[in-house]
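PROTOCOL LOG
Step 1. Enter all chains and additional molecules of the complex.
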Amino acid sequence: MEKDSEITILANSVTSVSGHWANGDPFVAPTEVKSVLGWEIKPEGLCKDDACIPVNEDQSIKNQDRYNLRQVAHLTGHPTLVSQESRTITIGQPSALRSSALRDKIAPDFELPDIEGVDRAFSDWAGKKRLLVAFSSW
Amino acid sequence: MDKDHILTELFAISNVPSVIWIDEEGRISRPAASEFGTDTFSEITGISREGHMQQVREWVRNGALPEDASFVVNDLSDEEIQARLHFRLAAHLRRNNMPVEAEKHFDSAIELAPLDFTIARASMPLRGGDPFGEEFFELYQKYQDAGSPFHGIPRKPQTS
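Step 2. Run joint prediction.
Step 3. Record the structure below.
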């Protein structure tokens, strides 16, 4: 039985959840998988909207009714970086979103806080021509 | 405010300023290009804002796109993707008073993407460096020596 531990997840937001580590990977409850990745664990696999990805529930992916967040993230197309030293998993944006932006020229939507801290979605300005300017204050 | 640099992941941005044109339907009309909204740095960069601004006006008024709008930007490599994750983790650790751990991940990020300005230059002020200092000019020289690798429309040499 693995000991419970706090796991910090750096995804679209920063969250700390209870879970455990096994073989260097973080395991979290199915509810956390859905909360972080938007994919729900069902009998048919990992599901989102009408799509389901079959999951082979062996020990490496399911352990003590928790799921290996690194492996589940990979199955859903997210790159990850696991640091057991800092008890953290960093989950990147899905590669398919970027590929679609570069190849098919479809701009992915995103949400970021404005200078007042109010969250704004890029799609708030849909229907208008937009210049996306990435800059730094240095 | 993009403290986690998610735009660099979503659009394969590797330098700033980068400008992307997006139309009413959410399609990318012109992919990432290094463009400036002002002439503040034109003495250093040799790039004037006016050419780009004129192109933007033509696009907005008449829907006209420059020839380079069909350019396809290269995707990020696996190393560049991992570098972004290391950078994000380093910034998180730094914000949470774990500077020693943060340094290790800044180092890993730069090792994986040494000429990516959103990593190598962006980490300078977070590590006590000067993004306009000697460290930056050394990076810029290495970048130029490597042929100015950039995820975006290559800039044509300016003719005067």
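Step 4. Note key features.
Residues 82 and 114 of chain B are 12 Å apart (CA to CA).
Residues 78-145 of chain B form one domain.
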